[in-house]
């Protein structure tokens, strides 16, 4: 091992895009077997991993340390994952969150996404899928940062909709609209590409950063929630239009 290489940093396993051990992940998981498994396999793809086993410690770590990602179990002692996620977002701590849940209920997943989680995995999950999701989230964050650096004052104004890209703020008729990180990314992708039709699978690739059969419903639920927040009448869309049998497009204004 190179004397400057941290334990667990196997750089040859990653593309150059990920060849760094500066990325730190916080795992908040009370099951010691699962947390150990997560720690080992995230180290295998060159991340430094910290582990805590309850929501209170997770909130404290996330509030006081610099992490690139939080892997967060839904069911935790002291403070559950949903409450932890809600508190992070209320404090404007926008560290990406990958939520783990043993529940299969769509309601639980939607609640997590509404409260600011970026993605979720339902237990049991495969290690390859976990690693792919982590890489996808971090790719998306890095791409967004590069785009903002290239055009720090970018604003998109369409009728009564204003998107402040660098500030990640959205306004309708000068009133702020609260969006989750993924809702913002989805809206921004549409607004940057007006008139173009995207299938659900394409939106998974472009916005979520991965393609996985069976997760197209994630796109549907995000678009439904986004419409409720930005459309004056979600049944008669002013911005995001359904193209039946194909997907969605942002109306070319």
Question: Explain this structure to me?
Answer:
By secondary structure, the protein is of the alpha/beta class. The chain folds into 2 domains: 11-145, Rossmann fold; 151-250, Winged helix-like DNA-binding domain superfamily/Winged helix DNA-binding domain (Arc Repressor Mutant, subunit A, Orthogonal Bundle), CATH 1.10.10. It contains 8 helices and 12 strands. The strands form 3 sheets. A 5-stranded parallel beta sheet has the order 2-1-3-4-5, with helices on both faces. Strand 3, helix 3 (81-90) and strand 4 form a beta-alpha-beta unit. Helix 2 runs parallel beside helix 3 (81-90), helix 6 crosses helix 7 (200-208) and helix 6 (181-192) crosses helix 8 (216-230). The chain is globular. The termini are far apart. The model is unreliable at 1-21 (pLDDT under 50).
